[in-house]
Amino acid sequence: MPRGPREKSETGIYHIIMNGANKQEIFHDEEDSLKYLETIRKYKVQAEMEVYAWCLMNNHVHLLLKEGNEVISATMKRVGVSYASYYHQKYNTSGHLFQDRFKSENVDCNRYLLTVIRYIHQNPVKAGMVYHADEWRWSSCLGYYGKDPFALNLLDKDNLLQKVAVDYIITNDRFREFNERSNNDECLDVKRKERLTDDEAREVIKQLISPIEIAQVKSFPKEKRNAVLRKAKAIKGVSQRQVARILGVSVNLVFKAKERGENP
Q: How far apart are alpha carbons 198 and 119 in whole angstroms?
């Protein structure tokens, strides 16, 4: 069955993962990584998009982008074709370098925006590549910490911090503490150990919220709905994305359903 069009982000902001075809490596040396970032910068200017975060791993890339004067899929196609052309010429190869279609998710609230940035920056840490996020050269973390002039030229850090300042007061120290905080962040349906299946999660949620019916939750007033969402997402082995699917609400509503006084 053909895949449908991507759901449009209300904010125009997307978390994107581009994987090497068949999980192949797409960056073999420093020149490759620099070339990819230069390609992103080139099409950032052309498409007038904003770049909020990135992390280059050996066989995949994480990006947090706000689309500009064209849809994000068109911009990412240009990036992929341009970098693949460089790669094939350098290594005398041919064929698909990236998977046919990149993964993406909408980022429609400021709290989740910060979560995605942290998730991206901590990718090398959780993969066991480094001990601290700022030890990985090929992410935007060093740009946020003011340590990498190249990153600062690519990164729209000030635009991002102004955006989240609507909801949160973010100083440099506070951002760094949040960025390095130990967490169990899950983005783009990352599967973790001891995760319940959707059928199992549905039964647990049904029992937890009884006598409320699952179908009723999405129509509740905000406070009543958030109370249910907080209960559901606290269940061990159930991801916030499962909660969203099962209860028929957007994942952003689940992330927004936080306790009063909870800080980013």
A: 23
What's the pTM value of the predicted model, to 2 decimals? 0.73
**Residue 189: what residue type?**
D
∠ at Cα 239 (230, 101), nearest 5°? 130
Q: What are the pLDDT digits (tens) for 48-102? A: 999 999 999 999 999 999 999 999 999 999 999 999 999 999 999 998 999 878 8
Cβ neighbours of residue 22 closer than 8 Å, sequence gap 6 or more: none
Paired residues of 54 in beta bridges: 63
DSSP codes of every residue in 166-213: TT----HHHHHHHHHS------TT---TTPPPHHHHHHHHHHHHTTS-
Count of beta carbons in the 10 Å neighbourhood of residue 20:
18
- The burial class, CB within 10 Å (0-12 / 13-18 / 19+), for 98 is buried
